[in-house]
Every structure is written in C-alpha cells, then in structure tokens.
Amino acid sequence: MADYxxxxxxxxAGPGGYVGAIRAAQLGLKTACVEARETLGGxxxxxxxxxxxxxxxxxxxxxxxANGSMAKMGVIVTPKLDLEAMHGQRKxxxxxxxxxxxFLFKKNKxxxxxxYAAFTSADTVEVAGKxxxxxxxxxxxxxxxxxxxxxxxxxxxxxxxxxxxxLPKVPKKMVVIGGGVIGLELGSVWRRLGAEVTVVxxxxxxxxxxxxxVRKEAAKIFKKQGMALKLGTKVxxxxxxxxxxxxxxxxxxxxxxxxxxxxxxxxxxxxxPNTEGLDLAKAGLETNGRGQIEVxxxxxxxxxxxxxxxxxxxxxxxxxxxxxxxxxxxENIAGQTGIINHAVIPSVVYTWPEIAGVGMxxxxxxxxxxxxxxxxxxxxxxxxxxxxxxxxxxxxxxxKVIADAKTDRxxxxxxxxxxxxxxxxxxxxxxxxxxxxxxxxxxxxAHPTHSEAIKEAAMAVQGKPIHI
Length: 468
Hints:
This protein is an alpha/beta fold. It is built from 14 helices and 22 strands. Strand 18 and strand 19 form a beta hairpin. The chain is globular and about 65 Å long.
C-alpha cells in the first residue's frame, strides 16, 4: 500500500458509485469516492428517481381526491393544492436519503473526496488540486440530460427533468418532448395537479424498448387520463417569448407543420454518459460512438486497473443496474466473483398505473428463437379479472408472460398494474433461476393480491387460466 493512497477510488457517488464504495470497504479495501455535489447519491437521489417518486406519490393522492376515485369508496373530500408543501416533502425525502448515504460512508470508513476528478495517468487522478493514486479506479460518473439541438433550457419556460421537479406553480399548458419513461412520469405529475399535458414523440408509439402490447395499452390509458399524444411527430423549433413558448411540429414521415403554445416545455429525449472533464485520454481510454466506456463482462476497461459501471457503460441507464454493477465490480476487485445478469434487469415506469417489464419483449423473443426454428408461447391475464385490482378500483392493465414453446422457460414478463414495479421482482427472480411458466403457475400466490395476475398469466401460457 505504500505506493498507493487507496486500494479503490471510485469517481462518482450515484447509485453505482456509492454502492460500489460501500461494498469495497466492506470487503476490507481502503476506499475513496469522489463526488462534486454537496450531497451524495448522484442524479437518482438528488434530482431523479427519489424526488420524482415523492411528487408522483403526492400527486396521486391529490388526483384521487379530485377525480372522484375516493368518492367512489365513500370518502368525500374537496382537495386544495399546497404546492409549496408538496415540494417540501420531496426535499425532505431527498435530505434524509442523501444524509443516510453520508452516514453509511462514515460507518464503513469510505473517504469522500469532494470535487471533480480528472485522470493524470492510468492510476492517478486529481481532485480539487490534489493528486490521489489508487490501485483500482472505477469510473461511475453517470449520465446527464441529452439536449435538443437548437433548444435552450432556461429552467423557467423550457425545463429538463431537474427543472420539472422545481416548478413554482402548475403550468396551464405543458408540452413534453419525448414519450419515454422520464417524460411520462413527470408529465403525469403535472397533469394530475391540473396542467393540460401534450406529449410529443418522434416514434409511432410511446416507451421505446418496451413490449409493443404494453406500449399500445399505455397510450390508451394515458389518453383516457387526459393526456394528448402526438406520436410520429418531431419538434423542429421552440421559440420562447416572455412566459410562453411556441413549438413547431411536423410529422416524422414528412408533411405540413403546425404550431402549439405552452407555458412549460419539458425536454426529455434521453440521457448521455458523463465523461467530459475526466481526461480519459491521459489514462489511455476513449469512448465509443455513443460516448460510453467499453468494458468486458467483469466491468474492466481495456486499461489494467481501471473499471467502469452504470450509465457510463453500455446497457440500460437504470439505477438498479448501476447498483448491481457497483457490488459486482467491488467483488471482482477483491478477487471474488461479481455476478450480474444483464439479461434479467427489470425496468419500471412509475406512472399510474405502473408499467414494468423484465427480459425479452415479444418481438425480441420471436427474433431470438427464429434463427433456430423455435417458437414462443404467450399467456396474458387482464387486471380487470384480478380480485384485488377489482376491489381497489384499479381495472387497467394486464400481465403478459412470454415463454419458449419447446422448453417452457420464461423469456420475458411485462405488466401494467398499480403495483407493477413491485410485482416484476417476482418475475425477475423466477427468470434468474431459469423458471418455466409452469413453475410460476404452480407456485402458490397469496389471495387476494395483484400478484395472482402473474400466476394466472403463467397458467395462460398453457391455455389454462382460471378466472378468464
């Protein structure tokens, strides 16, 4: 150790970085984590997953009171929005959780190096004017919002996901550019609180990358809830004048343009890896065509002693994927076998109802098996026929199980349900153990629960569901 300041130095304290740092320290490695924010937790805890869920949850309560859902159950209320208090509980949740990570760093003796890191060589970085040499360096710098060319984000009229969490009042008209997870979640928050929301998506369906049945059903549900959807449409211009924006839209396939006005425009067209300022070249590294750092199965880069995880490497930009990679990279560095199965990473959209999936879509499964002449079998079960969903007045959605017709092995599970994000964990665990649809179908599920819909969808693979 005499030659090194640390066994492990991790750049970035987001879900991948802070989890990796704690795990490395647990394994007896002298560990430091570099983070420039005033608080730990990265985008996820500070301006992403956590604060958005706080607003989603609060807005769902308001909407249930305002739209008559509570009245149906005999609870008569007239809601009044206190947006300042709603923002307050969001900030409190963030403060508690980021503070919790700082406590865990101290408990596990992880050094927090405050500032931005830049490589000066393959085993040395500079942080706030001081050099640190480490036996292993892990790049976990995450991602940031992808800008829309020609559109300036002022965080007042034109906002990104961070600005959309901080709006001081409910906009009358909001346009969301991008029909992906973040745009739909934040758009749904403000729709519930009273905004007229229009979602503009370049593709012909929402939620790129998800199963097509889910994408189509989601569009129906959001329309029913009052969102206007402009699919197959591109934004060619955003002009801001005072407190208003005028957007120019045209069909993606070509055709006449139109203009729409908004008080707030949310730009949500994706995220890009954060590598700027790292001076990767000084470490002998470069990025690929998508701005990512390439790694092998063990999360090693091409330079010995440098590793990378999370949004900065290929794969889905998801906090839980980064967390699992953080644990795996620490264990690999410690000489253990870090395990992460990139084929079984669930994804969730925290709208109402929630949307979740794990494994292959129907389209991917067909393509995967077609080369070998294989086929798939599908089982679907509507939430309308699930007793708990029915009792809770949550009829929207379904569960879809995709299995290999020959082996019955489950290839993918997709669902729309009020608690789909929780339900999908069962499917992911089953797939991790190589479960067949029959395995799920013959596993006793508690009654009455939403999860019974997974059991019934698995039974439906063999054409034998009970309740439809």
